[in-house]
Amino acid sequence: MSVSSKAIILIGGPSKGTRMRPLTLDTPKPLFPIAGRPLIWHHIRALSKVTGITEVFLIGFYEDAVFAPFLKDVSREFKNLSVKYMREYQALGTAGGLYHFRDTILRGTPGQIFVLHADICCSFPLKELQDFHGTHRGLVSMLGVRVPKETASKYGCIVPDTVTKQVLHYVEKPEGFISDLINGGVYLLEAQGFFDAIRVAMVRKSQQEMEDPYSYQDDLLRLEQDVVVPLCDDKKVFVYETLDFWRQIKTAGSALPATALYLHQYRTTNPEMLTKPKPGGPEIVEPVHIDATAQVDPTAKIGPSVSIGPGVVIGAGVRVKESIILDNVTVDKSAIVSNSIIAADCRIGPWARIEGEPLNPTSVVDSPTKETITILANNVTVARDVLVRCCIVLPQKTLTSNWWNEVLL
């Protein structure tokens, strides 16, 4: 018998996702297209396959109108789910937002709640997490992922019991190496008990402010630091380790490996999302997603790991690989686009070359200025024969000469 469940996706707000700029100047990070679909569409798709989930809440502090079209689309596509956006009156923190909407979330007395951070790309093994959760008496099951030792300290690090998988020690972004098993940003919680834990965390924070009124305390209540860490200390958290793919999406460049991962996953989960080679069509090096409204010349060569959005026009002899091309872009004849992200309404002239360096699949880029790919923001024009390599170009620019390793304001 399945347990009644609800799900929450923590989407943040306009002050978040600044490291994704310039791609998020016009599109909020949770809605940025990854493999042809908004980032959080992949979360909702995974949740739609979990028996017992009927409601999904998006919690953040964007304007309501920002998510209205997306909500309409997913309501039509995932008819078994009610997907709603709940807007915080101000930034409350990842746990503060949960507690603010506790009455709505707990309505109907759900037994369990999935909580997913928006800024991750993974296979979302939610059924496996649910099965694991039933094997212990803890309050929380978290998804754990192995990462290279040299990058582990950039995440929340987990030291589990090797047999029971109970979390013995958990530290958010430690100064030194603790473990290469990190928090994957996906949780399954016992509903009532977890909200009790949030209330305890709020009381604890208020007491700290009273005891030391001169110390700086912001108004944010954070899920990991303020709630999960104390629960780990109380031995109420267990970790389910997945061997499937996982990637955090922090900077604009991380959208490229995320797109490649999802395109490969489509082969088994959503083959209808992939474009197949066909007689008289362009040469396709799979996996590739091309929107049905895009026009691609039959002499073009596309792929691998390419996503092409609506209204795009690809000219004769064009080569595109390991790139994202968004809405209404024109790529003129014999141009090359590789290891790049081209935002909406750009125009790439004939014989132009837009290139970046291939990303290491396990690399972590903290700053957008350290990207090695090329990113063109909206409405950028690249003239004929121009080379743009490893550059970030802000909107409304026209490039008539060669550029490399620059941020063009």
TrEMBL record:
Pfam families: GMPPB_C, NTP_transferase. Residues 6-209 form the Nucleotidyl transferase domain. Pathway: Nucleotide-sugar biosynthesis; GDP-alpha-D-mannose biosynthesis; GDP-alpha-D-mannose from alpha-D-mannose 1-phosphate (GTP route): step 1/1. Residues 284-404 form the Mannose-1-phosphate guanyltransferase C-terminal domain. One of its GO terms (molecular function) is GTP binding. Keywords: Transferase. This is mannose-1-phosphate guanylyltransferase. It comes from Calocera viscosa (strain TUFC12733). The lineage of its organism: Eukaryota, Fungi, Dikarya, Basidiomycota, Agaricomycotina.
